[in-house]
């Protein structure tokens, strides 16, 4: 009788141990799945951040290139304006000189009429 009780106890104990092992394996599987899911989420977030960074870098590079072009255009326009202002000053001096000569000639003609 004792032997049967011991065997029954051992069988029951083994069944309990197997149930606990199965439960632990199930919990371990769930934890591994959760960890895998978290890793996948982190990977997706990292990829999205990298894509966003690349997109922002491309936009920055394009804007930088446009700024260089606009600065060069501005510089060219300023140089052109300086050149035109210089030409205008020269033309103004020439015009004033001509007007001065014309006035002098008119004055001389006017005085010559009375002489």
Short description:
The chain has 115 residues and is mainly α. The chain has one helix spanning 2-114. It has 1 helix and no strands.
Task: Describe what you observe in this structure.
The protein has 115 residues and is mainly alpha-helical. It has one helix spanning 2-114. The chain is rod-shaped and about 165 Å long.
Q: In oligomeric terms, what are we looking at?
A: single chain
Give unreliable regions as ranges.
none
User: Given the structure, what is the number of helices?
Assistant: 1
Main sheet summary: none
Q: Tell me the structural class.
A: mainly alpha
| Proportion of beta-strand residues | under 5%
What order do the helices and strands follow? H
Gross morphology: rod-shaped
What does the radius of gyration come to? 49 Å
Amino-to-carboxy terminus distance:
167 Å
Average pLDDT across residues? Answer: 92
Helix content: over 70%
Count of DSSP E strands?
0
Name its key features.
single chain; 115 residues; mainly alpha; rod-shaped
Layout of SSEs?
Blueprint: H1 2-114
């Amino acid at each position: 009788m004792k032997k049967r009780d011991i065997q029954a106890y051992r069988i029951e104990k083994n069944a309990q141990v197997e149930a606990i092992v199965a439960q632990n394996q199930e919990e371990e599987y769930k934890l591994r799945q959760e960890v895998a899911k978290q890793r996948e989420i982190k990977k997706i977030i990292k990829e999205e951040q990298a894509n966003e960074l690349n997109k922002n870098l491309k936009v920055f590079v394009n804007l930088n290139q446009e700024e260089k072009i606009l600065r060069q255009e501005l510089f060219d326009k300023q140089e052109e304006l300086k050149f035109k202002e210089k030409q205008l000053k020269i033309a103004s001096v020439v015009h004033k000189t001509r007007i001065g000569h014309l006035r002098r000639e008119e004055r001389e003609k006017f005085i010559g009429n009375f002489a």
